[in-house]
Amino acid sequence: MSLWVQKYGGTSVGSLDRIRRVADKVIEAKQAGHQVVVVVSAMSGETNRLVGLAESLVECPDPREYSVTVATGEMVSMALLAMCLIDKGYPARSYTGAQAQIFSENHCVKARIERIDPYPLKQALEEGIIPVVAGFQGVDSYGNITTLGRGGSDTTAVALAASLAADECQIYTDVDGVYTADPRVVPDARQLTHITFEEMLELASLGAKVLQKRSVELIGKYKVPLRVLSSFHDGQGTLITYEEVSMERPLVSGIAFNRSEAKLSIIGVPDQPGVAAKILGPIGEANIDVDMIVQNKINEDLTDLSFTVGREDYKKALEILSAVAKELGARDIKGDAKIAKISLVGVGMRSHSGVAPQMFQVLGAEGINIQLISTSEIKISVVVDEKYLELGVRALHAAFGLDKGADEDFDPKMRDFK
Amino acid sequence: MSLWVQKYGGTSVGSLDRIRRVADKVIEAKQAGHQVVVVVSAMSGETNRLVGLAESLVECPDPREYSVTVATGEMVSMALLAMCLIDKGYPARSYTGAQAQIFSENHCVKARIERIDPYPLKQALEEGIIPVVAGFQGVDSYGNITTLGRGGSDTTAVALAASLAADECQIYTDVDGVYTADPRVVPDARQLTHITFEEMLELASLGAKVLQKRSVELIGKYKVPLRVLSSFHDGQGTLITYEEVSMERPLVSGIAFNRSEAKLSIIGVPDQPGVAAKILGPIGEANIDVDMIVQNKINEDLTDLSFTVGREDYKKALEILSAVAKELGARDIKGDAKIAKISLVGVGMRSHSGVAPQMFQVLGAEGINIQLISTSEIKISVVVDEKYLELGVRALHAAFGLDKGADEDFDPKMRDFK
């Protein structure tokens, strides 16, 4: 008998009919002989309604009371799902963060989970009861109700799975799983049956929206076997694994992209130790996040430096850079908001060279000029003109065989988790 | 410095604007130098919305999960009021039933409060914090969220006032206080500044809707000085007191009435020990509450018996009585659903005779025939034809001088409570 932690998001419990369908999915797992702990978000729209009440009432709601207000959303869904399970003949019991003994830091908003006492839920499981836990909430050491950060219900599920040593943490969402690329851009994109944790972390950082980056980090910390599935369609979803890279691993697992960044360059800066800090320091002080950074030394005395920022910060960053350029005696600055970033991700890159040259060749053959390049151990990102985004992504998807399903045969033992 | 427990009902916190007004009322009391503990109901309409969700989802919601669902309504209002107070510069903190340590019986719905640990709220008061407590909810010995019975938020306020030895429990509602009679029927009706607990209990039992009977019983148990006030108008409201009856007390404090009952009579029953039980036993077994009971022995062998029941139970009671009459060999049965009950209430009746004869005389002078009479130590109730209700109530109101304000001069020492 395996223990599964199943998490259902806001759209999955967005109506009474959907709650009934979630109950059926939980019962299906029970009938297959598994123990199940369920984590639920608030019904879709409910969190916004509660936030709206608080923010219409006062300009800057007290964090403790804000958390109490918002936390009621998950309490309603947990109780509704529990009563639905009971009504269908399956003993269930709802748990607030406090009742499930999910202890968080002593601040009320964006609190991190510090520890979980697994006893109450273990006890319920032993009695054959299905615990239904409110996501996104905890309790601090003073008994205050706290709420977690973004992706909070995923975090609750992952932390509970770790604490209960669950066999699998299943995140039910409105997509079928993780794809080789966004299916809206690449019609041939294929759903992956497996992806390594490191790849998932890169994909989340690079703009894939399946899981919040913070939840992925937590998964890695506790090595929780995690599966992303659809609440609305049957299927095996995508399992996130932690195995060592085998030689059979495909070079590239997926392609991520975004067009939400802008590029800035400062040209011909007199080079001296610490010049990069002098350029990027004022940008950081203005609370602007810098993503890619590329420095290129022109000659003994001068250097060029380019970087990307979120497109919403582009104008502000350009103003700051203009002032910096004057101060440092740079020759020129340039900016371009019409760029796109395309990234190949795959743990196979560690053991195989040749991915980068092949990527550049594919893009070159399509007449796509590369503006910036940045690499990590399992990722290559390039910046290109925005208009080439779809063309580039589709060409790379085909060239690296992502439509061919090499992934399908990979590591069948991982299927034991399900 | 006095300690006040203030309770605000659903209409008093029914919108964000009203919550702001409640905050101002609380602050007014703080500024006058009092300590304040606030109890709130759910925003009006919210409890119905939550009940609707549960009852649309499943036919018969599990009581534990039903309570969790409904209890979120009060949690939202307590957090909103607390953040509004904080926003206005007054430290405040919301408390769920569990956080306020309000322990109830171990069943989840209509649970009675068993004990309150006053420490958390006392601690907050000492730190200058205004506690805002969710009404209508508690926690059982297993940590389950429970909800109290009807009038639950009043009960919370009264129980907290008792546990904290508050100087006054103030129930803010949508009426200005307790009146000598319903002002919609008697335009001359006057708001009472004081009423004794026993009178209030009789009035609540007889159909006055200001306070639930159960809350009044609890007030009496703990001798909590309780004031009923309006959230919407300024004023002193009505204070419920516990003093011994003084000779200055007016004979009659108020007039209650209802037209929600029906009368049944069984005529010419062979009299024998236990005949009343034989008649009323089957009525009680059918879960029909009997209110007034009058027996009248006709001669050595025969007796008549009349009683009243809720009008909704009239038909069923008549069927049962018909079967009983046959069994007992009664001569006849009669029934009348078009009756009204008028009651005079006043602790002064204890020391003054003559109220009953005066009442009968007043009604007789108006040509109103009395069908049944029932008396207790501080109350006289009569049943009359429904069509005479308004006429009778107004005549009695004038005859006993209830429009004259005799109450105004009464026992000024009781004003110390405010």
Looking at this protein, list some descriptive labels:
homodimer; 418 residues; alpha/beta; 8-stranded mixed sheet; 4-stranded antiparallel sheet; globular
Which secondary structure elements does this structure contain, and how are they paired or packed?
The structure is a homodimer of 418-residue chains.
Chain A: E1 3-8, H1 16-31, E2 35-40, H2 46-57, H3 63-87, E3 92-95, E4 102-104, E5 113-116, H4 119-126, E6 130-134, E7 137-139, E8 145-147, H5 152-163, E9 168-173, E10 194-196, H6 197-205, H7 213-222, E11 226-230, E12 238-241, E13 254-258, E14 261-270, H8 275-285, E15 290-297, E16 302-310, H9 314-328, E17 332-336, E18 339-345, H10 355-365, E19 370-376, E20 379-385, H11 389-399
Parallel strand pairs in A: 1-2, 1-9, 2-6, 3-6, 9-11, 10-12
Antiparallel strand pairs in A: 4-5, 7-8, 11-12, 13-18, 14-16, 14-17, 15-16, 18-20, 19-20
Task: Compose a concise summary of this entry.
Chain A is α/β, with parallel strands linked by helices. In chain A, 33% of the residues lie in helices and 26% in strands.
Number of helices of chain A: 11
pLDDT under 50 segments of chain A (min length 5)?
A: 406-418
Number of strands of chain A: 20
Can you tell me the overall shape of chain A? globular
- Report the CATH topology name of the domain at 3-245 in chain A: Carbamate kinase
Arrangement of strands in the largest sheet of chain A: 3-6-2-1-9-11-12-10
